[in-house]
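Reading group handout, session on sequence-to-structure problems. Before we discuss, look at one worked example. The prompt was deliberately terse, the way you'd type it at a terminal:

> structure UDP-glucose 4-epimerase

The input record follows.
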Amino acid sequence: MIEKASTKTKRILITGANSYIGNAFTQYATSMRPAYQIEKLSLRNIDWDQVDLQGVDAILHCAGIAHNATKTSDTDQYFAVNQGLTDRMARLARQAGVPHFIYMSSMIVYGNTSRSGEINLDTPLTPENAYGQSKLAGEEALNKLAGDDFKVTIIRAPMVYGLHSKGNYPLLAKFSRLSPIFPEFDNKRSMIYIENLAELICQVIDQQIEGIIHPQNQDYVSTANLVHEIAKQHDKKIYLTSIFNGVIRLMIKYPLIQKVFGDRYYSKDLSAWPYDSYQVCSFEESIRRTEQQ
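And the output record:
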């Protein structure tokens, strides 16, 4: 039987002082886990490695270069940060006796747009760009350090969305508010609302859960359903039509079309969670909260 969240004070250090996930987690945990003492560390500070880690119960490592810059010339920088700094931070943590290190990884370690369909236990890790390759390299560095006295948790998040989120969601939201029509194309996407992700991280900390985790919302989402739900939150009618489906099927191998209309989802077995549910917010409610501007 899983223990309930302890009321004992826990000292949590978040790396990546300005990260979206780190900031959202702080806001959520401050309300839902008042026993947490949350501190932030920017790895951009020249003397970041002088931080006192004694007494830290868990590190949530959100620092890293995200996927919004994928130029080949940035490859060295991706690896220096997503692998090099991750490895260095983890070694300092283990040396200081920090018992738990949580690494925010990404679904992109399975590949980018060319890796469509279901991702399951047998799906190989085939990252295609510097971002994905460096995130996987960060995972591998951590796995070498993991042990009984240094638990490592790797969270391979799919698309994360929520209030003020970045990435693809804001683009779809803008389109939903402006366009009167959208293709009703049946596809499956794994997504996770930021508060659901924050609750999962809280449970990982509370129970010292280790290993690789593949979180997602309770239900898969189609792009058409997402666009329709966003439009509804703004009292805007959007007409969904299947008239474009034939063209979409012909062009589905093109990266942009695949990115919007392709299937990309975790199998239910892969994302199985034997602990208390982290689904604190339904899909419909999550869109309402995200769109409250």
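Points for discussion. First: The longest strand covers residues 100-106. Second: The chain has a mean pLDDT of 92.
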